[in-house]
Amino acid sequence: MSILECNGVTKSFGALMAVTDVHFKLNKGEILGMIGPNGAGKTTLFNCLIGVEKPNNGTVIFDGKNITGLKPHKVCRLGLAKTSQITEPFRSMTVFENALVGALYGGGMKLKEARPKVRETLEFVGLGPQMTKPASSISVPARRRLELAKVMSSDPSVVLLDENMAGLNPFEIDEALEIIRKIRDAGTSLIVVEHIMRAVMGISDRIIVLNYGAKIAEGTPKDIVANDEVVEAYFGTKNICLAPA
Amino acid sequence: MSDNSEHAITGGNRVFWIIFPIAAITIGLLPFVIESEYLLRLISLVLFWAGLAGCWNIMSGYSGYIDFGPVVYFGLGSYATAIAMSKWGVAFFPAVGCSAVVSALVALLIGVPTLRLKGAYFAIATFAFAETMKQISLEFDRTFSVKLFEGSHGITLPMSAHDNTFFFYCIFTLTLTIALIHFWIEHSKFGYGLKAIHEAEAAAEISGVNTAGVKLRAYIISAAFLGMYGGIEAYWITYITPADVFNVQKTVQMVIMTLLGGMGTMLGPFVGAAFLTILSDRLGTAFIEYYLIMVGVIIIGIILLMPRGIIGTIKERFGLRFI
Amino acid sequence: MDCFLQAALNGLLLGGVYAAYSAGFSLIFGVMGVVNLAHGELIMLGAFTSYWMFVFLKLDPYFSVPFAALFLFMFGYLLQKYIINRVIELPHIMSYILTFGIHLVVANTALKLWSHDFRTITTSYSGANLACGAINIPYARFVTFSLAIVIVAGLWFFLTKTETGRAIRATSMDKEVARLMGVNIREIYAITFGIGAAVTGLAGALISPFVIIYPEMGLSYTIIAFCVVVLGGMGYMPGALWGGLILGLAQSLAATYMTAGISVAITFLILFFMLIFRPTGIAGKGLVT
Predict the structure, then answer these.
(1) Which end of chain A is least crowded, N or C, by CB within 10 Å?
(2) Which residues in C lie closer than 8 A to residue B293 (C-beta atoms)?
(3) What is the mean pLDDT of residues B233-245?
(4) What is the ipTM of this complex?
(5) Does the predicted TM-score (pTM) go above 0.90?
(6) Cα distances (Å, whole numbers) of residue C171 to B206, B313, C235
(7) C196 to chain B nearest CA, in Å?
């Protein structure tokens, strides 16, 4: 059963077609990988899904409701949340307070229920010991986790991860993948945009590939690796093999 | 001071609930102790400015939207009270209530389009609106052939039978409320929303904060209280003109006091107001140019040396969070 | 009809002057994001330079224009280099509050030195008109208008054709890339502010033959500069010209057919609605943060 449907979403900026007629479905409890070269329209597509950009055409159905053109805070409140590609913590607030904003507003919780929820979420992503630090003082990997915590504390049913592993070392990536699997096992569906092939191939149930704003392939990681068009989009030639991790 | 930094996690703030009532009661009892009318007036003035700066801090200090036209709502409040009392014979307290309502309504109408602007654009638009209001109140009667604002002649209010103690308590009550609103902002969902907007508005929106709604609420709360202060001042000095109540100088004072004390801090506006009001009283009116030069130098000094203001700097230095 | 033509002409003459003293404001905002609230004080200093040279050296106000420009270049350069540059990396709020402090210090120091007195420069051509049919063209305003247009054009030429001008524009487009290209950002900022101040001071000297000169004159000029620049598009130099002419016309016509007070109210209403409905200015080329 699908929880999120993207039906023919199109977005252009002037003459530039950023996203062209993209269709896909996300099933409940699934991890959907989304890959594509730089400028393929992944971030724009995400922005259309959560209401930061208004698509020129097409509809977004979330949990049976048409959410096309809804304001971002309403989309988040319904349970569709996104992490930022650039980590944008509320710098002078503590790690705890950062996640608290997600729980209070995105999750619509009262302060009393939000506090234990946030504490639990921060422990879950491994930021427990850094709870009282100002968000401006934590490291880049910690900021990536904080992005995750901000999203998770709003108790979403679908999470969009926009390059949440960029800049992490292999060890940290494994940890992040572990957290993502746990999130899925707790019943949340995810779409993961990532450049790190090893990560995205290893974790996704299905993958869709964007190039120049259009979907050029969809399938299991194995299918995708064997797809000529995908290999060509990335390397311009089909002689290089893209092996899964 | 780990007690303070964990406070958001545990909730509650014991220190505040001990210090605040003591301070409030002490100040509230001052009229019984103080003999000198002059001193009572000075203290009223400090509380008055602390309240105005507090109003500005609620909007601009916490949300980061620099409002250069708070004086609009102060002036509208003055006029609402003045017109209600002198022309329609309304009693003082209901008239101040009118001021709050008028200011809040105008803030709603103006806030919706204006709060979409960012940074310098918001600042300039609010400034422009304040000057527009001044001109409108000057020209309104002549343009529409009515007798409402009385143009540059101004309005004289009914002479009040009340003494300084009465006005002290009016101002004291309002400023106490402003202080409580500050405390509430520091400890509520609304406050976290405002601060999130200050830090990164786009990120706040995708975290579920209704940024437009939260900003508008802060703007309206701030306006309603500014209106009430305007109403009280009108009755206190019994004579108002557009040039006085919409004076840019009032905006400047609010900004500078908050900045000096520390923007977006709970005590900042109160500390800043006390410092500058007493300084201007000491220097006296004979030195008005020196006062303004000094205010200028102080502004430049704060911005260059401690951009977070007095309270902001103390907070940072000592790791205190909720003051 | 004559009345209308006269009002329109006055409006255009006024508009050209507005353009001249708003161009510097636009330049400073465009390059550094600084909303210079002490802008009017630069005009005041320019006008006073011209006034004192007239009083002590009997120099015609138009001849003191280069001195005003030079003096204000130095003033602006030092101000940016030693004060404003220190907050340039902080949030923009800091820069406008800082320039407001500078406004207070400069205006009130001038007040202390030169008193509240209203001063005027009376020359042989003061109040002289060239009569064209039923329309009068005041000499001084016409000369000032022409020179003002030359200044705006000159500034535009400087920014597009000279090495320094290109460095300034590069910095305003992307300061990190400009830094990598070997542009000394802070020095460019100081020069930019100096040039902005020089142009503004020049305009101040140019209007000195026909305006009232007093230490507190600055603020109202700052406000007009806001309006002009918002109309034309913040940071877009030729916009200052359009904005100035349109505002000048609107004000002059409103003052002729309604009252002076309404004309001021109209200025602010235009400003307010422009910001809300078209913050990029009439030509749509202004910067939006």
Answers:
(1) N
(2) 104-105, 108-109, 112
(3) 92
(4) 0.88
(5) no
(6) 32, 33, 13
(7) 19
Predicted pLDDT at B48: 96
In this structure, which long-range contacts are made by residues B302-305, counting pairs with CB atoms below 8 Å and at least 24 apart in sequence?
A: B302/B259, B302/B260, B303/B259, B303/C87, B303/C94, B303/C97, B303/C98, B303/C101, B304/C83, B304/C86, B304/C87, B304/C98
**Pairing of the two strands B239-240 and B155-156:** antiparallel
pLDDT above 70 for B57? yes
> How many other C-beta atoms can be found within 10 angstroms of the C-beta atom of residue A1?
6
Find out whether C54 and C121 touch, Cβ atoms under 8 Å: yes
Query: In this predicted structure, which of A110-119, B61-70, C126-135, C213-222 has the lowest mean pLDDT?
Result: C126-135
> Using one digit for the tens of pLDDT, what is the confidence trace for A92-137?
899 999 999 999 999 999 988 999 999 999 999 999 899 988 898 8
B115 touches chain C (CB under 8 A): no
Residue A189, φ and ψ in degrees, nearest 5: -90, 150
| Chains A, C in contact, 3 or more Cβ pairs below 8 Å | no
The count of CB pairs under 8 A between chains A and B is 98
The confidence score (pLDDT) of residue A245 equals: 41
Averaged confidence pLDDT in chain A: 89
Write the residue in A52, A81, A97 that is nearest to B8 by C-beta: A97
B80 token code pair: 């609402």
Q: Cα separation of B3 and B16, whole Å?
A: 13
Query: How many angstroms from the chain centroid is the CA of residue B286?
Result: 27
Q: Which residues of A touch B209 (CB under 8 A)?
A: 73, 101, 105
Contact of B211 with A73, CB cutoff 8 Å? yes
